[in-house]
Amino acid sequence: MIELGVRYGKGLQLINILRDLGTDLRNGRCYLPEEELQQHGIAPNDMVRRSARLHPIFERWRQEAEAGIAAGINYACALTATRVRLATGLPALIGARTLALLRVAGTENLETRVKASRGEVRSILLRATASLASPRTLRKMFARLRK
Hints:
- The chain is an all-alpha fold.
- It has helices spanning 2-19, 21-26, 34-39, 51-78, 82-105, 118-130, 135-145.
- The longest helix has 28 residues, at 51-78.
- The chain is elongated, with a radius of gyration of 16 Å.
């Protein structure tokens, strides 16, 4: 459980980094590894203009975030207390939706911030709550939101 929890936390943090990448770059911040950028011949202050070269790095970290979120849904489903399972699983569900949006947007999200809409978040919350956060339902929702 500790390993799943650590991977889950890292996955959530990676989502925030990827989702805010464009805003952070415009504000002079970059949380992607400098060595990896250098290997692809990219400087942080050049990333917005050369987003096509950034794509392999972005995609690698997006996949890493997906693995972390998958660990999170496994972690949540292993919990026995319904309310705790719901509270633990919701960020994974919202994260799965955000990662799906990031996959579609790719490095285009450097121009606009990608995030699940309030309506989508509300729907996720209502469906998960109505099911009493059953592990089966959480897994089905997770699989659907990842698409």
